[in-house]
Design brief:
The chain has three helices and no strands. The protein has 97 residues and is mainly α. The protein has a domain of 59 residues.
Length: 97
């Protein structure tokens, strides 16, 4: 018996990337042990953003605001995040074309 996995067109790993990012930020902010891959990500992220990743507050602030809106307005039944591709020519994996 063979298993065939179908991939949704247009899904280029955004969800997986977000999971990796959240796990990375959680470990950094809680000062937990990080993997070699996460260590290799730490300095470039710091260099690019100009702020150490353990100082990031945007994600937690955004979540607090979204949840507080849901608490105040019972007609909101769910939240959904979106991903915007800024540099379509350049990716983390393959660099610039």
């Amino acid at each position: 018996m063979s298993i065939v996995l179908s991939v949704k067109p247009g899904n280029c790993g955004k969800h997986d990337s977000q999971i990796v990012l959240i796990a990375f930020l959680q470990k950094v902010m809680l000062d937990e042990r990080i993997t070699i891959f996460e260590h290799e990500c730490f300095n470039p992220v710091w260099r690019e953003a100009g702020v150490s990743p353990d100082q990031y507050q945007l994600i937690s602030d955004s979540l607090l605001r979204m949840v507080s809106c849901m608490v105040r307005d019972e007609q909101i039944v769910g939240l959904c995040g979106g991903t915007k591709i800024v540099k379509k020519v350049e990716t983390f994996v393959q660099g610039s074309s």
